[in-house]
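Before the break, one more example. Copy the sequence into your notebook; we will annotate it together after we see the structure.
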Amino acid sequence: MANEIQILYTKGQTTTLYATLHDSTGNVWVEASAGTFEAWNAANLATYKITLTENGTNSGVYLGTITGLTTAGKYTAKAWDAVDAVIGGDALYWNGSAEIEQTEYDLEQVAMDDTVVSGVASNLKEGLAQLWRRFFKKVDKTATNIKTYDDAGSSAVTTQTYTEGDTDTVNSAT
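Here is what the structure looks like once it is written out:
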C-alpha cells in the first residue's frame, strides 16, 4: 500500500517534511531497515525518517509510505518539519498490509459473541454484555432483587439488591 501517512500542513513547503512511526510502547520504526522497531535514539534519526511529499501543487496535503511493516496493530505517526519540530500526528490502524478504519479494528477487539458474565463486569465488553442482558433478555425484578439471566433464561448471571422508597436504590451487581 502507499500513502498511509497523510498530514495537512502549510501548502507549498520548499523543505522536506518527514514522519516517524511509533508502536504502542513508544519504540520507533527504523524505516531504513524496513523491518524493526527500536527505542528512540536521536543519533539514529536519519534511519527513522519517512519522507512526506506534497500531493499535487500547493495542496497542503503531505503523503508518506511505510516500507515493510507487516505486524498488525495501532501505531502513531508523527510529522516533523525540516528543523525537527513536530508539526502533527495521528493514529494509524494497520492490519499487516494496509491501513484499516479505526472502527473496524476496535470492533474486532470487542466482538460480543457468546459473552456471558457472572458477577461484576471487569471491562467494556463485559459491561456491554450485561447492559444488553438487563434491557433485552430475561430479567426478574422483585421488591428486593433484580436478576439477569443467561441466554436460555434459566440461570441467573447477576443479582442486584433493590430498595424501594422515597428514593429507589439499586446496589452493585454480584
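Helices lie at 45-48, 102-109, 124-136. The CA atoms of residues 17 and 127 lie 44 Å apart. Try to locate both features in your own notes.
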